[in-house]
Write a structure and sequence with these properties.
With 140 residues, the chain is mostly helical. It has a domain of 37 residues. The protein contains seven helices and no strands. The longest helix is centred in the N-terminal third of the chain and has 44 residues. The protein starts with a helix and ends with a helix.
Length: 140
């Protein structure tokens, strides 16, 4: 059993050691590549910011130079058949309530009774109605 384990361990490759010259060289190359890529990214971002700021300044300056536009025709003349030629105050009329429906203030429309009072009145009306119908049926 010990011979089998020994042959397996001897057949395996040794892992690279920390002090290996080749691994150090590769690590330095990788670090240099990463540093170069970061520097390129910083440079590209700076150029992009300059371009965007220039575009924003150009857009802001073009907005301030817009000419004042005036309409070719007067809309009142154009749509006079729709809106009329009389002044709006003359054309407007005050609304008056139809007397058939009555003019009742909102305060009078509110029911100020409590629920119990309303229920008692409904019951009283039902009793009165039943008494009336009972009196008519018994007299017939």
């Amino acid at each position: 059993m010990a011979d089998l384990l020994g042959t397996i361990l001897n057949a395996m490759e040794k892992p690279p050691t920390v002090g290996d010259q080749e691994s150090r060289r590769k690590a330095r190359e990788q670090a240099a590549r990463i540093k170069k890529m970061e520097e390129d990214e910083r440079r590209k971002k700076a150029e992009f910011r300059k371009q965007e700021q220039a575009a924003l300044e150009e857009a802001a300056s073009s907005e301030t130079k817009k000419p004042d536009t005036c309409p070719n025709s007067n809309y009142r003349d154009k749509y006079s058949q729709l809106i009329g030629t009389s002044a709006a105050k003359d054309a407007a009329h005050t609304l008056e309530a139809n007397s058939a429906y009555g003019c009742v203030p909102v305060a009078n429309k509110r029911d100020t009774r409590s629920i119990e009072e309303a229920m008692n009145e409904i019951r009283a009306k039902k009793r009165h109605k039943q008494d009336d119908t009972g009196a008519h049926s018994s007299s017939s």
